Task: inverse folding
């Protein structure tokens, strides 16, 4: 039977790749001492076999961080974080031994989303008698696909690997670009990330290369090990193109409550980067306890002329989301885009938006943000559009819609606009609406259930943004939206 | 098929239906006429289960089943269809998608198999042209940017696809010019069937020239005050509702 033979061969190939790319992590839990100090950072750096310059970089960030204060301007509230009470480095922990140990609610959600069993087990981090190999077996389909893809990527000259590998194998690229978009001193969380980042992805697309596939499947597996301080760096050299997908619609368990990721994108002349995210971290229980705090810095630099960076995000998880994927439009004629769906339910708090910084001539940006608030949640759009005095001909269009479901949630829009030259044209549209009783009744009268009706209306509301997502992701996202809003009406 | 007995219903403190009794056997078309504020639309909402309308007394059974006890979507699956006086817009949801979701939701509720995409498309292609529903209207958001006539025709298309057992048409003629009225009436007449009852609510006789009813009822102050054959509509057209204490206007 050829299928079996192929399977066996792929498993063999996998083992080799696992080793080579550093995926297999020792399953026994190994942690740095609790709290943060120079010693912790030395420990992390040593664990990762980092060169001296990387350690220095981290230490500089750490010293800087000590002088900084936690920002409080976002419209979110949470108990004060004791940063000395966290572990900053731990090998992936041993997961639950069997499916019986998992919250049945999460399992139900998986069923609704149609997540394949094996993939599900991997996401939950379930081990079985097979020991450390299980995670691999579980995501076998995706991994094997990724393996096949890797050969194809390599032949195109694309570099795609964990950033910890890239630091050792491509130091010249990492040195040039790391921290060049989000400087070490950028903000409290980004600086913290610079000091202690665990892992993440590194992508380099050489000049003139159109990355032959969406970089997605691979990442799903990779992601499990990136830990709480993810660091991603993507460089599209002149005339290159890449589409990158982050995240997964399945709700993700994580022992680490505090997440502070940094993502840097660099687009050189005529290059284009499309970055799509689906974020569905654990939002906390029905009273809002125990959810993930997600403090993310994502920024793209349209460094060359005619370059383009496009962010698309679907945010449904986390107890607190603090996230503003931004574009620096440095090159002339460069373009920035931000498409966002942010859904909050229960006691979730979302403060998200974007910054479009126009520096070059004839730069344009487009912002489409759809916020949906249900339950007791608070959902804020915060956006900044600015044009430098040399940014003649800068144009921005912003459309920012909020939809409220129920009477106990809140939607807020906080736009900042600043034009320092007279030729800039900024347009801003914003609406806030509620799902009307009439719309609901119309749907019910046609036979849809309350939940189906809400999902249908909300999907209509976010359609402009869903269309920006790669096809397979869009279908998943649509299901996810329905699941996220369950129980929000009635 | 539909049996309403001594039905009382209110919205807030305002009692609107005050002891309405009405029976529609299968295969018949009954018209309800009456002055504004007599409770015609309220009857359609109470039968279809709109929230905020509270039944305080009486009963309504449909094929022996107490429909007042069912949720709105359960009534829909049981075959109750309301063609709205003011069809609702749902931006971003393609008309086609809406139709298919509704159809499959009802099938699911009845334990039937869902319709496949090709079969659904075939069905729509079969029914849409007679009602003058264009491809463009099927692709656009539900009722978004539709003219008054287009909205009403779209309601009838939904009715034709969902094949309900009880069709309630609430002032379907309002806002229609004579050509549009004919198209809509043809669509409705095509759906007359021995196993289907229809309740046509209208203010004017004009619609009943095109959808000829078996029985006409006059409604006033929340009750049926007179019933007769199709000729009753003509009589009302001449004498107006003055005899019932109100102007026809």
Result:
């Amino acid at each position: 039977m050829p299928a079996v033979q192929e399977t066996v061969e792929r498993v063999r190939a996998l083992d080799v790749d696992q080793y080579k790319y550093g995926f297999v992590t020792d399953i026994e839990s190994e942690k740095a001492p609790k709290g943060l100090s120079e010693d912790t950072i030395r420990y992390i750096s040593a664990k990762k076999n980092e060169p001296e310059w990387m350690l220095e970089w981290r230490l500089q960030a750490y010293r800087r961080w000590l002088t900084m204060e936690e920002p409080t301007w976002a419209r979110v509230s949470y108990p004060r974080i004791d940063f000395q009470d966290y572990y900053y480095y731990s090998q992936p922990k041993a997961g639950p031994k069997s499916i019986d140990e998992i919250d049945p609610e999460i399992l139900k959600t998986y069923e609704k989303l149609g997540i394949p069993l094996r993939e599900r087990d991997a996401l939950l981090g379930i081990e079985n008698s097979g020991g450390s190999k299980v995670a691999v077996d579980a995501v076998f389909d995706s991994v094997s696909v990724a393996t096949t893809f890797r050969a194809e990527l390599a032949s195109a000259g694309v570099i795609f690997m964990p950033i910890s590998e890239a630091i050792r194998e491509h130091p010249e690229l990492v040195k040039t670009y790391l921290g060049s978009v989000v400087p070490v001193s950028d903000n409290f969380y980004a600086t913290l990330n610079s000091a202690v980042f665990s892992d993440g992805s590194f992508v380099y697309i050489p000049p003139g290369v159109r990355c032959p596939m969406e970089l997605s499947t691979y990442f799903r597996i990779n992601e499990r090990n990136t830990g709480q301080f993810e660091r991603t760096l993507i460089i599209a050299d002149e005339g290159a193109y890449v589409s990158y997908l982050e995240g997964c619609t399945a709700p993700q368990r994580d022992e680490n409550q505090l997440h502070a990721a940094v993502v840097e994108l660099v687009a050189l002349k005529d290059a284009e980067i499309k970055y799509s995210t689906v974020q569905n971290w654990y939002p906390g229980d029905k009273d809002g306890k125990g959810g993930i705090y997600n403090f993310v810095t994502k920024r793209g630099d349209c460094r060359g002329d005619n370059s383009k960076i496009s962010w698309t995000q679907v945010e449904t998880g986390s107890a607190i989301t603090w996230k503003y994927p931004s574009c620096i439009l440095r090159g002339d004629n460069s373009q920035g885009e931000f498409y966002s769906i942010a859904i909050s339910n229960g006691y979730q708090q979302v403060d998200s938006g974007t910054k479009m910084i126009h520096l070059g001539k004839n730069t344009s940006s487009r912002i489409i943000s759809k916020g949906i608030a249900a339950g007791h949640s608070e959902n804020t759009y915060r956006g900044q559009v600015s044009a430098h005095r040399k940014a003649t001909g800068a144009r921005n269009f912003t459309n920012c819609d909020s939809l409220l479901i129920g009477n106990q949630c809140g939607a807020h829009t906080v736009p900042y606009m600043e034009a320092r030259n007279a030729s800039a044209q900024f347009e801003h549209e914003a609406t806030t609406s509620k799902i009307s009783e009439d719309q609901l009744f119309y749907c019910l009268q046609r036979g849809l259930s309350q939940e189906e009706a809400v999902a249908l209306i909300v999907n209509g509301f976010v359609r402009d943004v869903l269309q920006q997502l790669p096809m397979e992701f869009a279908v998943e996202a649509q299901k996810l939206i329905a699941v996220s809003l369950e129980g929000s009406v009635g | 098929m539909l049996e309403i007995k001594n039905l009382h219903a209110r919205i807030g403190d305002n009692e609107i239906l005050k002891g309405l009794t009405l029976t529609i056997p299968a295969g018949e078309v009954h018209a309800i006429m009456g002055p504004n504020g007599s409770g015609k639309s309220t009857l359609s909402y109470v039968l279809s289960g709109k929230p905020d309308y509270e039944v305080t007394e009486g009963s309504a059974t449909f094929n022996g089943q107490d429909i007042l006890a069912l949720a709105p979507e359960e009534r829909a699956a049981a075959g109750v269809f309301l063609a709205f006086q003011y069809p609702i817009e749902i931006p971003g949801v393609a008309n086609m998608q809406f139709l298919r979701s509704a159809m499959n939701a009802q099938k699911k509720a009845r334990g039937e198999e869902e319709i496949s995409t090709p079969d659904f498309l075939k069905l729509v292609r079969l029914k849409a042209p007679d009602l003058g529903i264009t491809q463009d209207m099927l692709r656009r958001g539900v009722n978004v940017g539709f003219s008054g006539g287009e909205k009403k025709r779209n309601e009838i298309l939904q009715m034709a696809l969902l094949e309900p057992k009880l069709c309630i048409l609430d002032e379907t003629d309002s806002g229609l010019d004579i050509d549009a009225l004919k198209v809509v009436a043809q669509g409705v007449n095509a759906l007359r069937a021995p196993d289907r009852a229809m309740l046509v609510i209208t203010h004017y006789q004009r619609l009943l020239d095109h959808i000829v009813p078996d029985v006409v009822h006059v409604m006033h102050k929340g009750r049926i005050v007179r019933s007769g054959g199709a000729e009753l509509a003509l009589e009302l057209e001449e004498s107006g509702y003055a005899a019932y204490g109100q102007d026809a206007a």
About this structure: The CA atoms of residues 4 and 10 of chain A lie 10 Å apart. Chain A touches chain B at residues 436-439, 441-450, 452, 456-457, 459-464 (CB under 8 Å). The first helix of chain A runs from residue 2 to 20.
